[in-house]
Amino acid sequence: MSMIKLNNPLFHFLINSKFRWCRHLVFIFSIGIILTNHIFLTYEGQTASINIYAITISYIVVSLLIMYINLYLFIPHLLLRGRYLEYTFVLVAVLSLIISGNIYAEYKIHEYYQIPFGRYSIFSETQSKIISIVYSFVIFALYLISVAAIVFYKHWLLNSKKLDQLKAKQIQTDLDNFKNRISTTFLLDKLSKAAEQCSIKPTNVSRILLQLSQVLRYQLYDCNRENVLLSSEIKFIENYLTLEQICNDRLTFSVSRPKSLLNRFVSPLLFISFIEDALSVLAQQDGESSISIEFSISDDTLTFVCSDNRKGSITKENLTISNRLELLQNKKYNLSSQFENATNQYNLVFQYQL
Fold it and tell me: CA 148, CA 83: separation in Å to the nearest integer?
């Protein structure tokens, strides 16, 4: 779903409450102009013989009354609640009543003032009554439907705006929860590893703490932005895997990046969940563990491939990844995975529209 442009003048005019009276004035003025033109055409050449202004005002008042009943009664209680068939029946009934009332009023006005029917009157001998009735029905239907369309569009804009806000809030909440989860469990685990290395390999302690500080610095500061540089995200992944390798001698990894990363932005911590899942699965098996990460860009599409040597097609469902991908706004993505028996490699492919 595309995001609503909040700087759109039409959006502000339709939604902003400070323009409410302006919207009503434009609506009343438009109806008044259209009906005045209709009345003066109907009684062309006879305006001096009748009280044309009283008739015009009466038509405008009655029409506006019907329009506002449609606006504040039929549309909210039927159309916006999805009761489209009922709204259609009501609309047809109202239109039939309007046409019947218009024909009756026109006949009575001519009878009261004793004036002949003009060439634009429905009772004129030069006019086809069927065509005139159908024409009037279509014109009044357009009036009512145009009002319904504008209100429906306004309702859609408001719902779209609320949905975008909820999605943005959910994305931020999921990201904050994810950061907190990494920061706490990850930090405790690595500090525990550093404590173990004090007696085994004291030289590793400083390396662990240095890599840990770089990883945490990225999580605490860079990830507060809505988007981060792809180069920074890749550097974070390298630091993260380097830290894991220091703490686990059985792990080997490689990271391949595109040659040009200028002005390429992605959502923060978008790929680390895939790597975490791979590490989690590999930690449950014996022997050497290897992870290969490859980034490539083609036609503004970023492809992320995470390959590992897990035994068999063992997969681990990650709801955090699924939920976050579903909430990505204005982004096209594709996620697939497969196990290659020939190379004993599990490949996860994630394509993301930059």
Answer: 13
